[in-house]
Amino acid sequence: MHITFFMKALITAGGRGTRLRPITYTVNKHLIPLAGQPLIFYAIQKIAEAGIKEIFINTNEGDTEIAQAVGNGSRWGVKITCFEQKGGPRGIADVVRQAKDFLGDSPFILYLGDNIILGKIKRYVDYFKKEKLNCFLALSKVADPTHFGVPVIVDGKITKVVEKPAKPASPFAVTGIYIYDSNIFEAISHLKYSARGELEISDAHSWLIKHGFKVGFREITGWWKDTGRSEDLLEANQLLLSEIKRQLDGKISDDATVQGRVKIGRGTKIGGKSIIRGPVVIGENCVINDSYIGPFSSIGNSVEIYGAEIENSIVFDHADIQTSARIVDSLIGLNTTIVSAHKSLPSGHKLIVGSNSLIEL
Question: Exposure winner among 124, 150, 267, 355, fewest CB in 10 A?
């Protein structure tokens, strides 16, 4: 029933991030920096823009990083409460089930915290309200739907949703943006764990459809990215950097060149004959000397770069890079040190590499 329309939001920020290892051994994937800020901040911003004031964020058991990063939500004008997903990651539907006491009977947005979209989500909230839906799904055409929940659409209506089908019935993926009323809890209560050991949210959608609830959808007209893999992170970083505006708060030497849309944080020094060619974001308190930072690069805070060339890459906080080798299409983790091989003997490439790493020499 739609007696009132006080909407809340639930953001998922748990999971293992296995496809992004070794980065996610030390950093929660939702805190990976894209275009100068943690990934989850974009989800919070989209929800706040839609006028929603109360957000709940699920985390892994024992995880305090997310809560420390987002705080109480005051910087976005919202109230944020974090809660741990008990029993470990067991599917998106399990997150919703465990959030029931927080969400109550209010309609709510479920936003997967590792998803990035262009544009506002308020139009989806308005559509949900106007059509008096029980469930809303945002869809996007993708090259390979087999990695997603895929809707079966007949005569303009979704008849069911199949999770990761071998033979997709449509070119659409159900993205990480959903809107529900309280009937979703009834649907989840009837689910059984899948072969993956998870409560599948796609099965909950199919249950709602089968039992006569009103499920609507709209196609996302701009871009949408699920940032589950390193190449997805780099592409999302590109898309976000394409939206930035020029802002130079650091100190730039007379010999250095800054071209295009570049954002440089306070306390950062660009020295020597450096060239910064946007779109690029460079954080606070960095030192960049005699280096080239090329398009679609995101440099974190307190990073030092000397004599290097970097392009289309994400460099995390406190990295130290001193090499003449050209770095492209890379994720360079927190506190990483990269130096030229000729600075030490014997000559050759010295590697200290963790599990699931990728190195191209």
Answer: 355
